[in-house]
Amino acid sequence: MISMEFARTLYDDSDPVHDFDHVLRVLALARRIGQAEGADMAVVETAVLLHDIQRAGEDHLAHVHNAETADHALLAAEQAREILGRLDPLPAPAFIEAVAHAIAAHRFRNAIAPQTLEAKVVFDADKLDAIGAIGVARAYAYGGLTGQKLWGEVPPGYPGGGTGHTPRHEFSYKLSRIIERMQTETGRAIARERHAFMAAFFARLEREVRGEE
Q1: Reported confidence tier of residue 89, pLDDT bands at 50, 70, 90
Q2: Domains and CATH numbers, the chain
Q3: Are 55 and 18 in contact (CB under 8 A)?
């Protein structure tokens, strides 16, 4: 459908958390999950290659409109339709829409739930890259980009985001909940191991911060 070389060019302006290395990791997970679950791998692989192509667009629109409503998943789904609609030979409309749905439904904070097996595979693969050892690394890479502290207490009822947000907050508010959102049996099995590692890391980190280890 689309080449790896072409897809790579779509991520030239990406941050290190959502760059093409992220895409390649998600692709490896999606192949593992999709093959185990019996998904249409052409849909899955195409959706993965295009799923984060509007991350920069989301940030730009949110800044311009002084809002947090821009949705990179919906923006990417629309751009994917345009990209696939220019291919020769032209993919079947059903294929294009299957890819677009998988992209639109991959976001964690999203009202669009994955309805197809392929969308569930893409969702799981993308979320798995946010937990485990790589999840810890990404949380601190993003924290470094945004000037976050290494550690911070999470008060009861903390809503997430905002001033004072740290990787520990991200774990408490979002990353620790990802395991509950897995869509496939294969994804859940991988998530259990990654979640356990990540939870143990942040528990150990807290003890070290307090001088207990």
Answers
A1: very high
A2: 1-112 (1.10.3210.10), 130-213 (1.20.58.1910)
A3: yes
